[in-house]
């Protein structure tokens, strides 16, 4: 009896039922990552709350984020699965009207990439970029802003991975662009959580920012401060402006680590790195003149 070893190396599968795109009516089957089987070998957690994965001897490099966003292979409409069919007619018209823009975006960055193929790192990058693009056109009741934030930072991570492999393409510039998109949308998300203009709390499931642990609101606070510090020079041109941004980030951070106790939902690592970041931001503020 001959064993089919090819199936043992598969990292994904296609859903048995088709999904019809609500925008262009193209039928497609969503690709999912197999769970278990030793496909993912977890590495360290980065300072951006990204879980790294070691290369698997059997399966090679696996990028779990490549399978998260659902993308129509016809019109390139992209959304997280809960939102894919939860869409109004006004949103459908707006997304349909921007189809050529999305196709140009993908062809410019990735040539003849198609979402009819099995997903790779490139599909992961493209899906996150498309998600950011499409959530710009979604209504407030589905909380598009935090979804733009998490999609943007994921896009930045994956663009950086791609740049490490294909350094002759300007994927580093695309990476920096999406980091800035993340900065803007994380800051906006914090504002929305204060004024209630988007139901961010009910969308906690998506906040990640990665897939192994959902840091949720704590992650928003931490990443807002981390990205503000990292891109301070691009966010403000003068000392008073920089001081004000750091002051706001530090104030939010104090709420995160201030309780000082770890728990199942708030592991000590998030408290520890937030305290370190709080101190670093304090030193930066001390070097700046406070606003008059």
Describe, in plain words, how this protein is organized in 3D.
This protein is mainly alpha-helical. It has two domains: 203 residues, no CATH class; 67 residues. The protein is built from ten helices and eight strands. β5 and β6 form a beta hairpin. The chain is globular and about 55 Å long. The N and C termini lie far apart (82 Å).
Task: Jot down its keywords.
single chain, about 290 residues, mainly alpha, 2 domains, two-stranded antiparallel ribbon, two-stranded antiparallel sheet, 10 helices, 8 strands, about 50% helix, about 10% strand
SSE topology sketch:
Layout: E1 12-14, E2 19-20, E3 27-28, E4 31-33, E5 41-45, E6 51-54, E7 70-71, E8 78-79, H1 81-84, H2 89-97, H3 99-110, H4 121-135, H5 144-165, H6 171-195, H7 216-230, H8 232-235, H9 239-257, H10 268-287
Antiparallel strand pairs: 1-4, 2-3, 5-6, 7-8
Helix pairs in contact: 3-4, 4-5, 5-6, 6-7, 7-9, 7-10, 9-10
Please tell me how large the radius of gyration is.
20 Å
Number of domains: 2
Taking the sheet with the most strands, its summary is: 2 strands, antiparallel
Overall, the morphology is globular
Count, helices:
10
Q: Could you list the spans in which at least 5 consecutive residues all have pLDDT below 50?
A: 1-8
Q: Which structural class matches the secondary elements?
A: mainly alpha
Mean pLDDT: 89
- The topology string of helices and strands comes to EEEEEEEEHHHHHHHHHH
Order of strands in the sheet with most strands: 1-4
Q: State which percent range the strand residues make up.
A: 5-15%
End-to-end Cα distance, whole Å, is 82 Å
Question: What's the number of extended β-strand segments?
Answer: 8
């Amino acid at each position: 009896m001959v064993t089919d070893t090819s199936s043992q190396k598969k990292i994904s599968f296609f859903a048995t039922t088709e999904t019809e795109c609500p925008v262009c009516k193209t039928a497609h089957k969503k690709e999912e990552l197999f769970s278990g089987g030793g496909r993912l070998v977890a590495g360290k957690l980065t300072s951006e709350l990204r879980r790294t994965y070691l290369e698997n001897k059997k399966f090679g490099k696996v990028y779990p984020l490549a399978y998260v966003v659902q993308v129509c292979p016809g019109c390139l409409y992209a959304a997280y699965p809960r939102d894919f069919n939860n869409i109004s007619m006004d949103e459908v018209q707006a997304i349909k009207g921007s189809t050529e823009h999305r196709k140009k975006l993908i062809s410019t960055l990735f040539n003849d990439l198609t979402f009819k193929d099995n997903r790779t790192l490139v599909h992961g990058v493209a899906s996150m970029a498309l998600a950011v693009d499409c959530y710009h056109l979604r209504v407030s009741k589905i909380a598009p802003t935090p979804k733009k934030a998490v999609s943007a930072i994921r896009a930045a991570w994956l663009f950086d991975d791609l740049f490490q492999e294909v350094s002759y393409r300007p994927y580093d510039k695309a990476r920096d662009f999406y980091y800035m998109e993340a900065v803007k949308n994380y800051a906006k998300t914090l504002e929305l959580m204060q004024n209630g203009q988007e139901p961010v709390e009910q969308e906690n499931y998506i906040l990640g920012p990665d897939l192994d642990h959902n840091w949720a609101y704590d992650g928003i606070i931490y990443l807002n401060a981390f990205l503000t510090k990292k891109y301070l020079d691009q966010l403000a041109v003068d000392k008073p402006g920089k001081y004000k941004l750091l002051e706001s980030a530090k104030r939010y951070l104090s709420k995160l680590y201030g309780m000082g106790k770890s728990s199942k939902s708030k592991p000590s690592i998030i408290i520890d790195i937030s305290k370190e970041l709080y101190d670093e931001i304090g030193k930066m503020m001390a070097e700046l003149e406070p606003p008059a």
